[in-house]
């Protein structure tokens, strides 16, 4: 059982790191990974991230670099850009942001001034730190106004969004977030943004793969600017992109470089290109729809077991569960699930009375298990293991967790993962 590709040179040079990588590969193989922001990349994406492209420094953009020797790097980046434009149907793509947070920060730099008002979803209701939350630079350098969800439905309160927009006249409006289990109404956000002359930014980091595969409506044509990571449902490397219409392209590029970053990570750019090439294939669309089918099946199985899902279910890859009625907070539940072979994260839920580091909920997603080959019919068993684990955690029955972990290892044996030969 080894990491693929094999780590022979690494093992010879640094056996301690090689051993940790091997152990992590086994851990990823042996657990049901339900962290909504994670996935398994293909062998091709893995190989692209480990190439000699990591040796090359490439400040600037294709055809306009500050270092020589860019003849091939320019082709790599151009391929990534053209594939991004084709997959998402946009005028412009910048594939250089190092991750999602810098991508969002570049949008602020491009279209706002320090102190300007920005409207984003409140973090406890499902938003993201970089949408103006107080501990983020975006909440310190700009004037944040926050919208939330309706208590009775758990869905975005668009009436509140419009009311706040009309009152505060923000320069930027963010649609999207990190724990939103329902379809985002991009046309409604666009109508509000037009009414107050704001730039609408669609942060589709979580749902980019679903958008690419036609399993979630696209923000293209509604949002002038779109930010996304390239991992999660898109199943690429740890990177990011900013997509835009033609009118906003120049400001985006200037904000990324030289505004925020130096040389792009060329090995990551290559891996993004590979992932986008995979996303152009018909089987990727089928994969995106299976993600949603698996999430809905898991949601139904958990509801049948008495779990309280925020908004009552899901339209995408993500489930947000309030564990208040199960008499166990999110953090000990997540820790027990990890020991039992189920990996997810504790998470605040809307109107959560508990603190963020010890919240009432858990968040889970189905991207990784779908990559691995699990189908909707398997979700009843997954829900059973989740329920048994949380029941054991509530009763402090630690021995039951090891039993469940053994069952899960046996169950997962026929479902291989890229990057590990079992």
TrEMBL record:
One matching Pfam family: SHMT
Site feature location: Plays an important role in substrate specificity: 231
Subcellular location: Cytoplasm
Reaction(s) catalysed (UniProt annotation): (6R)-5,10-methylene-5,6,7,8-tetrahydrofolate + glycine + H2O = (6S)-5,6,7,8-tetrahydrofolate + L-serine
Domain of life, source organism: Bacteria
Serine hydroxymethyltransferase-like domain mapped to chain residues: 11-386
GO cellular component, one term: cytosol
Main subcellular location of this protein, as a coarse class: cytoplasm
Residues the entry annotates as binding (6S)-5,6,7,8-tetrahydrofolate: 123, 127-129
Pathway this chain belongs to: Amino-acid biosynthesis; glycine biosynthesis; glycine from L-serine: step 1/1; One-carbon metabolism; tetrahydrofolate interconversion
SUPFAM superfamilies recorded: PLP-dependent transferases
Modified residues (N6-(pyridoxal phosphate)lysine): 232
Enzyme Commission code(s) on record: 2.1.2.1
Stored InterPro entries: PyrdxlP-dep_Trfase, PyrdxlP-dep_Trfase_major, PyrdxlP-dep_Trfase_small, Ser_HO-MeTrfase, Ser_HO-MeTrfase-like, Ser_HO-MeTrfase_PLP_BS, SHMT-like_dom
GO biological process, one term: antibiotic biosynthetic process
Assembly with partners or alone: Homodimer.
Protein name, UniProt field: Serine hydroxymethyltransferase
């Amino acid at each position: 059982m080894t990491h693929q590709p094999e780590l022979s040179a690494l093992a010879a040079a640094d056996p301690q790191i090689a051993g940790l990588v091997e152990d992590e590969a086994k851990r990823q193989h042996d657990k049901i990974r339900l962290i909504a922001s994670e996935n398994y990349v293909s062998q091709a994406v893995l190989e692209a991230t480990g190439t000699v492209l990591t040796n090359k420094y490439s400040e600037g953009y294709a055809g306009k670099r500050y270092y020589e020797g860019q003849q091939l790097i320019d082709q790599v980046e151009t391929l990534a850009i053209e594939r991004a434009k084709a997959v998402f149907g946009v005028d412009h793509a910048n594939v250089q942001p190092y991750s999602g947070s810098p991508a969002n920060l570049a949008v602020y730099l491009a279209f706002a001034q320090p102190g300007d008002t920005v409207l984003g979803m409140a973090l406890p209701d499902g938003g993201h730190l970089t949408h103006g939350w107080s501990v983020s630079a975006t909440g310190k350098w700009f004037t944040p106004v926050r919208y939330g969800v309706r208590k009775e439905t758990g869905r975005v309160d668009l009436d509140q969004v419009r009311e706040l927009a009309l009152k505060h006249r923000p320069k930027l409006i963010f649609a999207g977030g990190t724990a939103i289990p329902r379809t985002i109404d991009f046309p409604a956000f666009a109508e509000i943004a037009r009414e107050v002359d704001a730039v609408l930014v669609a942060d589709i980091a979580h749902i980019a793969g679903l958008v690419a595969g036609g399993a979630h409506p696209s923000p293209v044509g509604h949002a002038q600017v779109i930010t996304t990571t390239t991992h999660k449902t898109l199943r690429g490397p740890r990177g990011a992109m900013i997509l835009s219409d033609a009118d906003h392209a120049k400001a985006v590029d200037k904000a990324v470089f030289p505004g925020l970053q130096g040389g792009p990570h060329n090995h990551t750019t290559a891996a993004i290109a590979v992932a986008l090439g995979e996303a152009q294939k018909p089987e990727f669309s089928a994969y995106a729809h299976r993600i949603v089918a698996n999430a809905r099946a898991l949601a139904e199985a958990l509801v049948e077991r008495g779990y309280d899902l925020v908004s009552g279910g899901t339209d995408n890859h993500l489930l947000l569960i309030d564990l208040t009625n199960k008499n166990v907070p999110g953090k000990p539940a997540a820790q027990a699930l990890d020991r039992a072979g189920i990996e997810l994260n504790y998470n605040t839920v809307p109107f959560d009375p508990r603190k963020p580091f010890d919240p009432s909920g858990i968040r889970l997603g189905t991207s990784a298990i779908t990559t691995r080959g699990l189908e909707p019919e398997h979700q009843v068993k997954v829900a059973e293991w989740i329920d048994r684990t949380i029941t054991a955690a509530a009763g402090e029955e630690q021995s039951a967790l090891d039993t469940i972990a053994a069952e899960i290892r046996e169950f997962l044996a026929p479902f291989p993962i890229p990057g590990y030969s079992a």
